[in-house]
């Protein structure tokens, strides 16, 4: 697969790593990453056709991804995109927005700007403040669980069937994030569509476009349109929160100042967009992953139903096991050594969270869903200065939802084949048919 000095992935393996469809065939994707990690833990991925995308280092070992994530001076979130993009897609983004990322936000800023922007909402997302929204989240959780049971027409001893994704795991985190951003319920479908266009552009079912195999140009146009739409929408929310501030995070952003001045409009919109977008497809994927694991293991389901102290372990393991954010990219700020290779200033690197979270050197039997896994220092939330801002919220949402589900669902099993999305970036289940009885 690789030459000795500067290992280069063969074309078939490069395709397997970059094709959105590969991420829908999870086990064979994990086989590919196992092979690459064992043979060339840092390997160059290059296009068949020069110029199609800029060659980059694929990083698959847990220790290397962790080291990169924590060294924010050497591995930057700028100037090259933080999400893998083809040369053409970058050119379209530049054309559409004047930047090589479609949205300027926390994830594309580096120091000294990044910590100033991050500080604005950091306290809001800490567990102590999140206690103030716990009751509202519980109400939302009960509502989706009721709807799920109703849709399945299930009762005590009466099995019903329903798809967990459209009824629970997709709408619930969206309701939560929309609530904290002050978006009224009637606007949620629009936000859902826009977010799916932003993140799910590679999967026809998720993008809502109905177009199979979209070209990079079509995907970029779809995404650029979604960004514009988002920007217009949140400009209205910001104006309202400046006039009538509340306790929500939308008010914090609308009234924030950096270096004594309010945020420029594009940055403010970027802040809302990153929260709206990062906050729900991710949590949706790990929620569906947890439910699939429980449906596949009735004994574990019965155990956690009887002993809720097992729940935090299940939540954490579901996040590792499903790894909703599948990669982020970095740009090397200087020449450096990593995993036995010389990285040059300007090199582009892909941190594969999927590969890192399935590294057998860090996790025993990594493909097994093990709710008792300890320690479980996974990289699904990243690490270092950019570590997920919403990680406490994501865990809280999942715990509250599963408390509601475990109270109401009596038995649980798969009612069909779960389906994963075609996506190299944010991935996870798009269908999870379940058979269940309810109290
Ligand atoms: C950043 C994963 C839920 C907001 C990130 C990063 C990852 C991630 C991998 C990048 C970390 C890095 O570069 O080191 C996840 C997963 C989630 C989740 C797996 C659910 C299970 C949320 C939620 C929110 C959120 C609920 C907020 C409502 C953010 C923001 C960033 C971020 C704002 C950018 C932080 C920065 O660059 O400083 N997330 N996330 N995420 N996440 Fe999450």
Helices, by number, come to 19
Main sheet: strand order: 1-2-10-7-3
CATH class annotation: Mainly Alpha
Structural class: alpha+beta
Q: How confident is the prediction overall: mean pLDDT? A: 92
CATH architecture: Orthogonal Bundle
Number of E strands: 14
Note the overall shape.
globular
Radius of gyration: 21 Å
Q: Helix share of residues?
A: 40-55%
**Count of structural domains:** 1
Largest sheet: 5 strands, mixed
Could you state the CATH homologous superfamily?
Answer: Cytochrome P450
CATH-defined topology = Cytochrome p450
Bound molecules: protoporphyrin IX containing FE
In whole angstroms, how far apart are the ends?
55 Å
- Stretches where pLDDT is under 50 for at least 5 consecutive residues are none
Strand proportion: 5-15%
GO molecular function: cholest-4-en-3-one 26-monooxygenase activity; heme binding; iron ion binding; steroid hydroxylase activity
Function: Cytochromes P450 are a group of heme-thiolate monooxygenases. They oxidize a variety of structurally unrelated compounds, including steroids, fatty acids, and xenobiotics.
Protein name: Cytochrome P450
Keywords: Heme, Iron, Metal-binding, Monooxygenase, Oxidoreductase
